[in-house]
Amino acid sequence: MASSTAAFSSSSSDSRGTQKIAAAANKTAAESSHHHFLTQAYDRLRQAIAAREDNNSTLPTPNQLTAAISDLPRPSQPHFLSARGPEATLDHLHSAIIPALNGQSLSSRYYGFVTGGVLPVAEAADNIVTALDQNVQVHLPENHSVSTCVEDSALSMVSSLLDLNRNSGYVWSSRTFTTGATASNMVGLACAREAVISWRLPNNPDSKSPADLGLLAACRAAGVSDIQILTSMAHSSIYKAASIVGLGHDAVREVRAHSGDDEPWRLDLDAVERELATADESCVATIIVVNAGEVNTGRFATQAFDMPKLRSLADRYKAWIHVDGAFGIFARALPKTDDFLSLHANAAGLELADSIAADGHKLLNVPYDNGIFFSRHPDIVTQVFQNPNAAYLSSSASSSSIQSPLNVGIENSRRFRALPVYAALLSEGREGYARMLANMVLLARNIAQFVRDSEAFEWLPSENAPLESTFMIVLFRARDPRLNNILVERINETRQIFVSGTSWKGEKAVRLAVGSWRVDVERDAAVITEVLTSIASAASVSR
Ligand SMILES: *Cc1c(COP(=O)(O)O)cnc(C)c1O
What we know:
Elements: H1 15-25, H2 29-55, H3 62-70, H4 86-97, E1 110-111, H5 120-132, H6 147-161, E2 174-178, H7 181-198, H8 210-213, H9 215-222, E3 226-231, H10 236-244, E4 252-254, H11 269-281, E5 284-291, H12 306-316, E6 320-324, H13 341-346, E7 355-359, E8 371-375, H14 378-385, H15 418-453, E9 457-460, E10 473-478, H16 481-493, E11 498-504, E12 507-513, H17 521-541
Parallel strand pairs: 1-11, 3-4, 3-5, 5-6, 6-7
Antiparallel strand pairs: 2-8, 7-8, 9-10, 10-12, 11-12
Helix pairs in contact: 1-2, 2-4, 5-15, 6-15, 7-10, 7-14, 11-12, 15-17, 16-17
The structure holds pyridoxal-5'-phosphate.
The site of pyridoxal-5'-phosphate has 13 residues, from helix 7.
């Protein structure tokens, strides 16, 4: 049998056929064999997926999961890490691994976490990315690759989709693709930290920045005693990012409106103002994180006129505003019709921030992993992320407005993750995304209305909220505490839909997050309400 290195050589089983093709196409037998293998592998994948789409499968069965786990190679096995060759490996992937993966991108009825789906055109583009394996790090458009230009074009389409240039005085010239909103939040906090210290640093002889000096020396030189992050119900990744950039979890401070009350996701602007003033007196610098899309409720930290006020406070106290808009910022791409006016109001003014994090792999419906970062402070971004002393990494076009991606974000070598976004935006356009997002919101509101009106369930966070406050997440619980305790399991064991659990005000709750391009409002609402109705009536019978 073929060894691993010889697996594609003329010793493989179909050598005679491939040699003939090779002669005709003027390719080596090995090259033809690669093509043959990949073409067949792709056909086989599409067939396997078609079968699963027919079943609308949301999750693998427990048996498929156990079988896959027991099939994983173990160091104790005699043949551990001996070459199987590509054919046998592909057989293994199809028989064991694929059946044990969930159907989050294959079904419109997977409502766990916030995952989004994958538009077919984005999947096709992602296969191009893998096949051509571009390393998008240095901007070399004249003689190397167009990839950095495509990336820049994709980012300018995203910024237009999100209407970030609404305020013509601001230019979002520093922008990049990251691995996700967590990475974008980390990049945002790294820039914020650099800026709030830089803005207080006296001119020093060598013009050293915090990036040069390091956090501790820069704070000493700037007379900064501490750095705090003011926010409301921030996503866990903000705490993680605070730790990574050396500020610490404890730096994150909640300034919720009406704390413990009905709207804990809202930022209390009066409290922010008081905190800024007090901080200023004790040489504490401040970063403000606006949570545009709270992960349990989908609600927003700000309302219509909050952002201009926040901007002027930040300017007065040299604070940086970062928006965590992982999924919420896409409210700005909804149709501008009455149905969505209140969501547009929630997302208004976010373009007044200093930096913005968004996710591509959630509501843009491109494959993992894909995050987006925008800032309007190229000087700060460059200070933090520039690779110093690397002549071999300099770009040819120093006059270009496109920065080399390796000097804008965390990674140097990078995947061409712009291409699926580029393809999806070209294909769907502004109208296509507006329609897609509207469908998600309409399905979520349909379910919100159902749980609000039902006797068995309670719509959270408040049954008195207007339906128009619902974006694409529905939070609810069963009124019967015994059913509520097992509600997530009951829903998921129907295998018709998949939801994830959370806790709201100390009690279990269900989150149903709609995020796929596959949504069909009537069809999907019928399935969801039927599942919930039958669970509620079975529970009342068993009492
Ligand atoms: C999902 C999410 C994140 C984290 O994003 P990843 O893509 O998982 O890195 C951060 N903030 C919010 C509000 C989110 O919904």
